[in-house]
Every structure is written in structure tokens, then in C-alpha cells.
Amino acid sequence: MPRREVVEAFAKRLEDGDFIGAIEQFYVPDAATYENDAAPTVGRDKLVAKERGVLAASREVKAVRIGPSLIEGDHVATRWTFSFTNAEGVTRTLDEIAWQTWRGDKLIEERFYYDPKQLGR
Length: 121
Fold this sequence. Notes:
The chain contains 3 helices and 6 strands. By secondary structure, the chain is of the alpha+beta class. The protein has a 6-stranded mixed beta sheet with strand order 2-1-6-5-4-3.
């Protein structure tokens, strides 16, 4: 079960815009993430590379946590709003729920649930 202060430190890294640092610090080497029902991305190095691609495609990415992260045993649920601003200055917002599985103070799996139609608005 993750300690509350570790979950808070992880959230702060995201809110501070240090998405790569959060992955490098908190994910285990063989961590997996899932976007809705898509096949997983497995391995911290692949997760970092994927995140670098998202960041490179955006002029700015902002993360805002909505409410507290809920911790129950090895599971953490957090509601997020992400804003992606592209090179032309157009901002798209994504509201998502992140469902995480932790082993102690390290993330082993994260599933992102959101409506992809949000990005087309």
C-alpha cells in the first residue's frame, strides 16, 4: 500500500509539469499503462518515450487534480483534468480518472479512463 505522502508527491510532480520525472521516480521498471481499453504500454523506458512524444507534440501540458486521491489498499484513484495546447495555441482539455495499482511506494500499473471525444472539441 502506498503511503499518502508518496501519492501526494507523485501528484505534485504532475501538477508541476514534471511528467517524465514522475514516471522515472515512481514507476517500477516493468510498469504498464493502459489508455481506456487499448493494449498496454509496458516498461518504464517505453512509458518515458511515449510521454516525451506527447510533450513534443504540445506547446504546453497542464495537469490539475480534481479533489483528493482516494487510497484503498494497493489501489489509488485520482480524477484529473489535462490541458494540451498545440503549436497553434489551440487548447484541448481532457477529464480522466487514473486507476493505479501500487506495490509499496512504486506504481506497477495505471489505467486511464476518459472519453476520447473530449479531444475533438
